[in-house]
Amino acid sequence: MPLEFVTIGVYGWDAERFFAALLAAEVDTFCDIRARRGVRGAEYAFANSARLQARLAELGIRYIHRRDLAPSLEVRSQQSAADRVAHTAKRQRATLSPAFVEAYRREQLRDFDGTAFVAELGTTAHVVALCCVEREPAACHRSLLADRLTRDLALPVKHLLPIPLNSAHTPPI
Questions:
Q1: Burial of 11: CB neighbours in 10 Å, binned 0-12, 13-18, 19+
Q2: How many other CB atoms sit within 10 Å of the CB of residue 139?
Q3: Residues with Cβ < 8 Å from 23, sequence gap 6 or more?
Q4: Residues of the chain whose pLDDT is less than 50?
Q5: What angle do CA 119, 122, 126 make, to 5 degrees?
Q6: What pLDDT, in 10s, does the model give residues 99-135?
Q7: Separation of first and last alpha carbons in the chain
Q8: Is 48 exposed, middle or buried (0-12, 13-18, 19+ CB in 10 A)?
Q9: pTM, 2 dp
Q10: How far is CA 45 from CA 3, 14, 18, 152, in A?
Q11: Following DSSP, what letter does each residue of the chain receive, concatenated?
């Protein structure tokens, strides 16, 4: 089975739909690329580290935390400053600022080796989910990592997005 990558954010999902989306995509390896593995708000408690890891284990999905792929506090401050200037709340952001993109690429991706990353995932990884919190991939560093993997490995990356609750297209559990 060839290796595939998907990305998923936490915002916009409820627990049932989040895990259903992972199962529908046949994810076998979950790569958490958040620096802090907690999310504020009771509706997102499922994504807090201990609960997330327990549920993934129940589903037979391996969990890996790659803090080295999370933006540093300094890099995140670049985006916070841009959000303040644009009067945009983090959960409403649609894209990343050029300053954040440049800083993340310089600090986290400069020495990143996609081939080595895949080797570290091991031969049991077939569908790998890259996870952070933002709903929109373009508003999250996971899109920058996905672009780098596509460039390094010539593998397409699919972005899993929450479907509105009133939609008939909800993936089954």
A1: buried
A2: 24
A3: 59, 171, 173
A4: 169-173
A5: 105
A6: 889 999 999 999 999 999 999 999 999 999 999 999 9
A7: 23
A8: middle
A9: 0.88
A10: 30, 10, 12, 34
A11: ---EEEEE-STT--HHHHHHHHHHTT--EEEE--SS---SSGGGGGGSHHHHHHHHHHTT-EEEE-GGGSPPHHHHHHHHHHHHHHT--GGG--S--HHHHHHHIIIIITT--HHHHHHHH-TT-SEEEEE-S-SSGGGSHHHHHHHHHHHHH---EEEE-PPPTT-S-PPP-
Residue type, 31: C
Q: Is 26 left (phi over 0), alpha (psi -120 to 50) or beta?
A: left
Can you read off the two tokens belonging to residue 34? 């958040």
